[in-house]
Design goal:
Distance between the termini: 41 Å
Radius of gyration: 26 Å
Number of strands: 21
Shape: elongated
Oligomer: single chain
Strand content: 15-25%
Helix content: 25-40%
């Protein structure tokens, strides 16, 4: 197998992943597993299969065989990739922490993210740490079902574009810090207590949940803790249940309320410091996708507009606003100007920004050119009733907009742009961008651009049709996750404790950052 740095490039799904994702992949270090590790694996698999043969979804056991997972030893990621390739999926080993958006992107590319550590014997029933039992024996077997694997991929696509908030990220930072402290054998109890209080404070002050926070709940109640079938006699398909000896038994007890799954599950927060008082039961895997599409139809990626722009500003991280022309602007959005109808008429980024069309960067409009930001109007022009992106060259000429000549564009909003037209750029016949020199742009008494500032690239589009997390072209911001890759626990004085010395975290879905108050129960970071 062609493999480098733990990446199985012969697997089509893995090889298709962009570099900013593959930087998380590590070698499994299979020879580092001890005889005790393999014994723990055998015990868990035998105990689980004894119980699950009656209560797990019927595809689970076939999936164990189809994905190359042995009951006798810990699976090799490379072997799994050979078999997963038959269903057009793949897997990469990771070393604990990866950002939730990165996890979702992997899933969108049909790649399972597998923590390569094995749980310790005193965590045999349930582990708060990243663990190959949960990932390989929990998640992998179910994806052999085509409907379910399609659901997972689509969930990844939606999750990769879902908007998170600044408070989400602050909470993640607090949880990560606490997790590192709790793994240190010499941690100061006072410092741990202070870190715990900070996490609790940020959890209580999240405000309205972000798209990612709501999506994390849907992920938890399906992919992690989902039941399927009838309310009276449901089967288990959630990976968190399948990989836990204790949880797989208790979840079917009558005391745990069974609720028909629906979009309302997004409103049900969860606290996994205790057993769940309720679980959601879907009819079948198509039911999962139906609810996901209902959720996706209302996110900023689909609706755009002022609500979406405000989410981009709130996230305080790289996001993309797409004009109705198809022009995509990626950067950190810091301002939106609205009119008396509360419609967006001008938006602005600060710092490195890139322009793209259909996911590919426009030549000459990368982050080096727009390194200090980008600002442009949005909306219809006074001179015509036609959406500006649909104007033909003849219509532009009739309006006096010709390359090499002075022109003036008045927006219905009151914004006025005037200067010499340097270049007119189209994409698939639509007007995307007009570049001016000696340009001024004003809104009432406010100066938006002055002639001595250089070239003015005016975006064209009647409205903002879509807003989503991340960059329009993944190659533009290839280092967007670099700070997460560099900030590994080993850099915090933990390397000397060996391969198990990782933060006290369990990766359990799109919100994969949890910390544990006890040795057996973590807390959801975005709950």
């Amino acid at each position: 197998m062609k493999s480098q740095g733990g990446i199985s490039y012969s697997n089509t799904a893995v090889a298709a992943c962009p570099k900013h994702l593959l930087q998380f992949a590590v070698d499994q270090r299979y020879d580092d597993y001890t005889s005790v590790d393999h014994a723990v694996w055998r015990f868990i698999m035998r105990q689980n299969t004894f119980f699950l043969k009656e209560y797990a979804h019927k595809v689970y056991f076939q999936g164990l065989l189809n994905t190359g997972i042995s009951f006798e030893r810990i699976p090799r990621i490379e072997e799994m990739n050979d078999i997963l390739a038959k269903i057009e999926w793949g897997a990469v080993a990771v070393d604990g922490f990866i950002p939730p958006a990165a996890f979702m992107e992997f899933q969108a590319y049909k790649v399972l993210v597998i923590a390569c550590d094995m749980r310790q014997i005193h965590h045999i029933e349930y582990t708060p740490a990243p663990d190959i039992v949960h990932e390989a024996a929990g998640h992998a077997p179910i994806i052999v079902d085509r409907e379910y694997s399609n659901y997972l991929q689509r969930f990844g696509e939606v999750g990769a574009k879902a908007m998170s908030s600044r408070k989400d990220f602050e909470l993640y930072q607090a949880i990560r810090h606490l997790s590192i402290l709790k793994e240190r054998p010499d941690a100061d109890p006072k410092e741990v207590d202070e870190a715990t209080k900070l996490v609790e404070h940020r959890q209580k002050n999240l405000g309205a949940p972000s798209e990612m926070a709501l999506l994390s709940r849907l992920h938890w109640w399906t992919v992690e803790y989902g039941l399927i079938g009838s309310l009276e006699s449901p089967k288990i398909y959630g990976a968190g249940l399948l990989s836990s000896i204790g949880e797989s038994v208790s979840c079917l007890e009558p005391e745990v309320k069974k609720i028909p799954y629906s979009i309302d599950a997004q409103n049900c927060a969860f606290d996994i410091t205790t057993k769940q008082p309720q679980l959601f039961v879907c009819r079948d895997f198509q039911h999962l996708k139906d609810v996901l599409e209902e959720f996706a139809s209302k996110v900023a990626f689909k609706v755009g507009g002022l609500e979406g722009i405000n989410k981009a500003i709130e996230c305080n991280n790289t996001a993309t606003c797409e004009y109705s022309s198809g022009l995509q602007v990626s950067g950190i959005f810091t301002e939106v100007i609205t009119d008396e109808n509360n419609s967006p008429i001008y938006l602005r980024t600060t710092g490195k920004t890139a322009l793209a069309f259909q996911g590919k960067e426009l030549e000459g409009h990368g982050i080096d050119y727009h390194k200090e930001g980008f600002g442009s109007p949005v909306g219809k022009w006074k001179q015509t009733s036609t959406a500006p992106e649909l104007l033909t060259n003849d219509q532009l000429h009739a309006l006096g907009i010709v390359e090499g000549k002075k022109a003036k564009i008045e927006f219905i909003s009151g914004i006025v742009v005037s200067g010499k037209v340097e270049k007119i750029l189209r994409g698939d016949g639509r007007l995307l961008l007009i570049t001016f020199v000696n340009c001024s742009a004003k809104y009432r008494d406010r100066v938006l651009f002055q002639p001595d500032w250089g070239f003015y690239d005016m975006a064209v589009g009647e409205r903002i049709s879509s807003v989503f997390n991340g960059a329009n072209d993944s190659r533009i911001f290839t280092r967007r996750y670099a700070k997460f890759v560099r900030a590994k626990p080993a850099m915090n004085g933990l390397a000397k404790f060996g391969r198990r010395s990782r933060p006290n975290i369990r990766r359990t879905g799109c919100c994969r950052w949890k910390f544990s108050r006890s040795s057996t129960r973590p807390i959801n970071s975005l709950n």
